[in-house]
């Protein structure tokens, strides 16, 4: 299969309009336009009955104690974990495009609804956990919410946009399912996959390098 993420070239920085957080000299970070990019895919294998779209960051600190803390840095040596930013399942086999801004157009405080969305069924992304301690933002975040890595992280983060062709029409997921649930449900049903990876950082030292 072939996947195109419009505006994002393989291995290159992700444009700010697709980000949840953008660089700010005054406050380190301010909200971005948080639009999902347009994605298109082709050459799905014979027998494809549905698609899964996901985007995740494998570079998220496993321990958040120093994240976004003045006078501290998130060490490059810290073990990293996956952070899911976008989960859409049960996308019909007839669909090969998600328009820009279709699943997200701006930061939505307290999150967007899970379940059936504009295209497919929305899973719950990890902003649900990350913002749980923020009284102005706490909520269930579903669908697309873009990059917002720690502004004091020593490494540049990578964001994998993926599409998976499946041999089933539905993964049978409902409610507040997350990225791990999607991966478990997909196991044994993936006919083919494609990926585009972009990068992003809010660390001014890395942005200038």
Write a compact overview of the structure shown.
It comes from Marinobacter santoriniensis NKSG1. The protein is built from 3 helices and 11 strands, in the order E-E-E-E-E-E-E-E-E-H-E-H-E-H. It is mainly β.
Structure, explained:
With 209 residues, this protein is mainly beta. The chain has one domain: Phosphatidylethanolamine-binding Protein (Alpha-Beta Complex). The chain contains three helices and eleven strands. It has a six-stranded antiparallel sheet. It has a three-stranded antiparallel sheet with strand order 1-4-7, with no helix packed on it. Strands 2-3 form a two-stranded antiparallel ribbon. The chain is globular, with a radius of gyration of 17 Å.
Count of helix runs:
3
Strand order of the largest sheet: 8-9-6-5-10-11
Oligomer: single chain
Beta strand count: 11
Indicate the mean pLDDT.
96
C-alpha geometry: globular
Beta fraction of the residues? 25-35%
CATH topology: Phosphatidylethanolamine-binding Protein
Rg of Cα set: 17 Å
* Model regions low in confidence, pLDDT < 50 over at least 5 residues: none
